[in-house]
Amino acid sequence: MGKKLLQRVLSVILVGLTLSAVGCGPTVHQRQASFVESEYVRFTEEGTGVLVGQAFLKTRAGDVKYAAGNEVVLNPVTSYSTEWFNVGVKGNQALSDPDPRVGTYTRTVVADGEGRFEFRNLPPGDYYVATAIFWEVPSGAYGSLTTTGDWIGSRVTVRDGETTRIIVSS
């Protein structure tokens, strides 16, 4: 899949999941931060860092819901991505479409059945790692279902030649 198409798909997924998570209508937060490409350039180089993690949520009843089969996003920490993380991930608000150039610097993997994921060949630096975990629960009569869950994410530092391990949960 081409980078531009991947970014567009990622944008649609992120906006769609965020809208469904908060149950809101067409209200979309207009981005305030500008995309500054010079903040991202150092993340184009191949590095030797590895990020290994697991993503899950724990319900009030103590059940664990893994990010099994879900896309995990790795985004370099910049002024632009900080808005995405604070507003979209932590704040559960839909954001306007991202600058298409951000797709060049954003990496994604799919978590395995236990919510485990791995990113390789990372240049050193700070990153946001995030994923959405949603599931349906019975609500009311007649077999209706309600979607519940959340976006979860963390900030992590990756160093060259090292494997960084992280648990992403809320």
Can you lay out the helices and strands and say which pair or pack?
Blueprint: H1 3-22, E1 49-58, E2 64-66, E3 71-76, H2 79-90, E4 107-110, E5 116-122, E6 125-138, E7 145-158, E8 163-168
Parallel strand pairs: 1-8
Antiparallel strand pairs: 1-2, 1-5, 3-4, 3-6, 6-7
Structural commentary:
By secondary structure, the protein is an alpha+beta fold. It has a single domain (about 5-170), classed as Immunoglobulin-like, CATH 2.60.40. It has 2 helices and 8 strands; from the N terminus they run H-E-E-E-H-E-E-E-E-E. It has helices at about 5-20, 80-90; strands spanning about 50-60, 65, 70-75, 105-110, 115-120, 125-140, 145-160, 165-170. The strands form 2 sheets. Strands 1, 2, 5 and 8 form a 4-stranded mixed beta sheet that branches. A 4-stranded antiparallel beta sheet has the order 4-3-6-7, with helices on one face. Strand 6 (about 125-140) and strand 7 (about 145-160) form a beta hairpin. The longest helix is centred in the first third of the chain and has 20 residues, at about 5-20.
- Spans of at least 5 consecutive residues whose pLDDT stays below 50 are 1-24
- Which CATH first-tier class would you pick? Mainly Beta
Radius of gyration: 16 Å
Quote the average pLDDT. Answer: 87
Instruction: Give the N-to-C terminal Cα separation.
Output: 32 Å
Looking at the structure, the CATH topology is Immunoglobulin-like
**What is the makeup of the main sheet?**
4 strands, mixed
Annotation keywords:
170 residues, alpha+beta, 38% strand, 19% helix, 4-stranded mixed β-sheet, 4-stranded antiparallel β-sheet, globular, disordered N terminus, 8 strands, single chain, Immunoglobulin-like
